[in-house]
Amino acid sequence: MLSLIICSQNAVLSNALSRNIEETVGVDHEIVHIDNSQRKYSIFEAYNKGVEQAHGEYLCFMHEDISYHSQNWGQAVVNHLSQPFVGAIGVAGGCVIPDRLDWRFLDYQTTYLIQGSYTEEEKPRYYVSSPAKKAKNPSLVQVATLDGVWICIRRDLFQQIRFDDQTFHDFHLYDSDICMQINQLGLGIFVTYDVLLEHKSMGVFSDSYQENLEIFHRKWKDCLPMVKGMMLSKEEIDHAVKEAQDYFNGRMSDDHRKIELRRLLIQKSQRADTRKLTKQEKKRIDKSAYRCRRVYLKDKKMTTSEAWTGVKEYLRSPYAKKRGRLLSKFLWYRIIHRKH
Fold this sequence. Notes:
Blueprint (H helix, E strand, L loop, with lengths): L1 E7 L6 H10 L4 E7 L7 H11 L4 E5 L3 E3 L4 H9 L4 E5 L1 E3 L1 E2 L11 E3 L2 E5 L7 E5 L9 E4 L1 E2 L3 E5 L19 H11 L3 E5 L4 E3 L7 H13 L6 E2 L6 H36 L9 H20 L5 H13 L6 H17 L1
Parallel strand pairs: 1-2, 1-3, 5-14, 9-15
Antiparallel strand pairs: 3-13, 4-15, 5-13, 6-8, 6-12, 7-16, 9-10, 11-14
């Protein structure tokens, strides 16, 4: 049996997610819902509770903001994890775990998922920012570590591994740490191209993330850098990390502003007495809202009427600065281009 372990910020799992799982999984399964609506647990503690409660031979640790696009994906999980050399599978991962920074900022990555995002407006709208490319790779591609959006591991390995809730806190680096433990067992970690899912948020890197990243590097300093699935010299890794430093610094700064902006918008939606938006924050909201509607215009699954509704929302926004540009794109993609 396959046990799906979900650490949820909601007391009750959404009907949409439960229905999506039921309609696609294709094997005997159970959902282990860890209610973390009161933030009682770190992700490490929540997943350890999930392991204790699970009855399945195969465990799937998944975010709750995903949906499955593949049919019978559960059978693919069982087939892969049944192979003795496989320790874990996922849909996104990195071939290099560096001794500083994070693997997510290096180019040596393998990913097969549909990545979505939300705007930063008061009434967020969802859009797909990077659809998955058609897989031309083998069913399994070896990596050193996986992204925690979706990780599947055989239950019997938890006699030797555990989400390290003694060393870490909060909700970061649990994925890299558990993968390092599996690497120490001599088992392979792989990205699979047999399961396609959609992840509906990008996530942000907070101060807590940086603290946990430092803890991770201290814990595994004697084993890093680690490379799997490719050949790289230490000089090549050092160069890649150096090249990624500016990206890392920029993302940290950008996410810090994003966290502050979202907090401010929530307060405003609750009519709390708070400061006014800065010129830079208004510009950021406009950029996000415009990008969302631009994606809608190119989405063939969305009707022209639905796309126009999104355009009108943008036109009415007090932050909109690209009204003429969006209107011209609507005319091109939805009127002129369709006639040819």
